Amino acid sequence: MKNPIKKFIISAACFMLIVSGSAVAGQQSAHAATNAVESQQTVTASATSAQKKAAIIAYAKSLVGKVKYKFGVNNPSKLIFDCSSFTKYVFAKQGISLKWGSAAQSKQGVYVSKSNLKPGDLIFFSVSKPGRINHVGIYIGNGQFIHNTIGSSFNGILISKLSNYSKRYITARRVG
């Protein structure tokens, strides 16, 4: 076994079983060891999710200056995406499957309130028709998000302050 915590827990459980000599005590020790191992697995799964989200953000940032925005396009070979095909592409690099389309992505995963955003959460906006989801970005922490967008003098990946989009913000989802 490579995990010293699991090794210690299992060793302690075996020791308790031998010392107690009682079937009831043995069952209780085995149950405690199983619970401890399951708790460790939950912590490991959470760490893995956090690691995936960190990798998603790092990869998205690595594409700054390389990706171009074009409405309705999903062209990974040329790094030309709309906002949702960009999030779809970046999340796929970590094995998380997203649909294409910001409205479709807004139905994936679980709802997250604005006050409980964590890095790696998808955030959705209305940028043209009020109240209608038509833009998506990735929350990166510290009140900022990364997204693929176009403006009068800009085309590509941009890191923006969420507070600048407060009137356009609609919802957020946690996926993966």
TrEMBL record:
PROSITE patterns: NLPC_P60. Residues 50-176 form the NlpC/P60 domain. InterPro entries: NLP_P60_dom (IPR000064), Papain-like_cys_pep_sf (IPR038765), Peptidase_C40 (IPR051202). Residues 1-25 form the signal peptide. Coiled coil: none annotated. It comes from the Bacteria. Keywords: Hydrolase, Protease, Signal, Thiol protease. Pfam families: NLPC_P60. Belongs to the peptidase C40 family. This is C40 family peptidase.
